[in-house]
Design a protein that fits this description.
Elements: H1 2-7, E1 14-15, E2 26-28, E3 38-42, H2 44-49, H3 54-58, H4 60-66, E4 78-80, E5 83-86, E6 89-92, E7 98-105, E8 111-117, E9 132-133, H5 134-149, E10 156-168, E11 172-182, H6 188-197, H7 200-214, H8 224-246, E12 248-249, E13 271-272, H9 296-315, H10 319-348, H11 358-371, H12 376-384, H13 397-412, H14 417-425, H15 435-448, H16 452-461
Antiparallel strand pairs: 1-7, 2-4, 3-10, 5-6, 7-8, 8-11, 9-11, 10-11, 12-13
Helix pairs in contact: 5-15, 5-16, 6-9, 7-9, 8-9, 8-10, 9-10, 11-13, 12-14, 15-16
The structure holds adenosine monophosphate (AMP) and magnesium ion.
Length: 491
């Protein structure tokens, strides 16, 4: 017993339930070793919560594991097959540069996928090189951890390791591998893949696996697939509302980038909105604005309809009946989403109870913010601290009238002002990963090998609701620029 423990001093405790699914679902293969594995950043607290030993991960052996040169004990690496609608077009996809090492069971018995992103070519790589570069992997690390701290369900980042190998993008860049931790990597696209290329039995197997893994409370009765659809819809309605409430723009909401667990997944061209505008798009390739901030709820509903389609054969033997059940479930999304969004907006404005005019009050504020290009985060922060003079709206008669209405609204509720302030403090972040701050951190890391800027940023972002005055400079919106901020998929 002690012998086994000594051999696995890192604390790996893998189970490989995905590898027990039908072979069609994946392709077993090991990561491609890299020239010189080097640990760049490790998420100590996440490692600990996974039951992993931080010192062991920071050792030479640890770096080898995190760069794919050594397979940890009990792991069974595989690339998952999936398909997806990319910008509306159906394509066969799959892990083209990621490998699932296995599922780590933490000391509390919880199961997490451990995936290496950038670990080399797989049968799903198409024309890609199977690799990732340092900037975008650090960017995923920063933004996913910020999302977690904001209380938004997300995959997380355990580590970034350098490979010591150049990777060709627009320019030659240092290669890196991100260790991604997820409740699972089951996506809408996983169902699309099995629905198109698997048997009816494969589809039922995948649905039962998803139920077991994410919705164990749903009983094994004959309605379980409808409940699966309803619960996935419910979680997405919660997730997308949370994105909208903090101004997060995913940027590439293809159906393969929507996780059934309800976690945010695949941090590519994502970014946070500064000035409020529903048409905001950062992604350089999203020329039509399909994935603009204001479109996200509609796109989520569209993606969920694609999920529902894959489930039709499981919902009912009678096709018309099945379609009716799916349509009813999908039509609930907008109401569920709206309910979550409205509840979140009420909290952002310090409201505990509900009044019929609340939505108009909220829409009026957003309308003024759009008109005056007011910073989304900072406007709510200024209201939280009762400093309307710090908003771009201040001095306009519309805003003066709005403030009067809002204050009267808060006066009518039974909770005291102090409670409203507390509710607003915990609903309105002081800081988000501002694009200029993220760029600054990445530039220092990439160009000077200076990771201190990123570490400071990560530390500040880890407590977005603390509102501590010493980090006030992280609240500053970027200086107005003639060139809009652009993000790139070429990761
Ligand atoms: P994403 O835009 O990250 O969701 O990726 C879309 C698809 O392209 C997925 O199947 C990825 O695995 C694949 N892919 C992205 N980058 C690469 C790469 N460098 N090499 C191989 N496959 C890739
Ligand atoms: Mg993806």
């Amino acid at each position: 017993m002690t012998g086994i423990k000594a051999m696995n001093k890192t604390g790996w405790n893998f189970d490989n339930s995905y590898a027990r699914l039908p072979q069609l679902f994946y392709s077993k293969l090991n990561p491609t070793p890299v020239r010189s594995p080097e640990l760049i950043i490790l998420n100590d607290s996440l490692a600990e919560s996974l039951g992993l030993n931080v010192q062991a991960l920071k050792s030479e052996d640890g770096a080898k594991v995190l760069a794919g040169n050594r397979i940890p004990e009990g792991a069974l690496p595989l690339a998952q097959a999936y398909a997806g609608h990319q910008f509306g077009h159906f394509t066969m996809l799959g892990d083209g540069r990621a490998l699932l090492l296995g599922e780590q069971i933490n000391p509390r018995g919880e199961r997490f996928d451990i995936q290496l992103k950038g670990a080399g070519k797989t049968p799903f790589s198409r024309r890609g090189d199977g690799r990732a570069v340092i900037g975008p992997m650090l960017r995923e690390y920063i933004i996913s951890e910020a999302m977690h701290a904001l209380g938004i369900p997300t995959t997380r980042s355990l580590a970034v390791a350098g490979t010591g190998e150049p990777v060709i993008r627009e320019t030659e860049q240092p290669g890196a591998i991100l260790t991604r931790v997820a409740a699972s990597h089951l996506r809408i696209g996983t169902f699309q893949f099995v629905s198109k290329w698997g048997s009816a039995q494969d589809l039922a197997t995948l649905a039962d696996y998803t139920l077991q893994r994410h919705f164990p409370e749903i009983g094994a009765d004959e309605n379980r697939y409808l409940h699966l659809l309803q619960e996935v819809i419910k979680r997405q309605a919660e997730l997308i509302a949370k994105w909208q409430l903090v101004g997060f723009i995913h940027g590439v909401m293809n159906t393969d980038n929507m996780a059934l667990s309800g976690e945010t997944i695949d941090y590519g061209p994502c970014a946070f909105m500064d000035a409020y505008d529903p048409a905001t798009v950062f992604s350089s390739i999203d020329v039509q604005g399909r994935y603009a901030y204001g479109n996200q709820p509609y796109i989520a509903a569209w993606n969920l309809a694609r999920f529902a389609e894959t489930l039709l054969p499981l919902l009912n033997d009678d096709e018309a009946q099945a379609v009716k059940m799916a349509e009813d479930a999908i039509s609930n999304f907008s109401e569920l989403y709206h309910h979550n969004w409205l509840a979140g907006m009420r909290a952002k404005l310090g409201m505990f109870d509900e009044e019929p005019e609340d939505e108009t009050l909220i829409e009026d504020l957003l309308g003024m913010m759009q008109k005056h290009r007011a910073d989304y985060t900072n406007t709510f922060r200024a209201l939280t601290f009762d400093k309307p003079e710090e908003t771009a709206l201040y001095g306009t008669s519309d805003f003066t009238q709005w403030l009067e209405k809002w204050r009267a609204r808060l006066d009518r509720q039974e909770q005291p002002k102090a409670s409203s302030h507390q509710l607003m403090r915990s609903s309105n972040p002081a800081w988000i990963p501002r694009n200029h701050r993220v760029e600054e951190a990445l530039e220092a890391a990439e160009e000077q090998g200076d990771y201190s800027v990123m570490e400071k940023l990560l530390q500040v972002l880890s407590s977005p609701f603390e509102h501590s005055p010493e980090h006030a400079e992280y609240c500053t919106a970027p200086a107005p620029s003639t060139r809009p901020y652009r993000t790139f998929c070429g990761t």
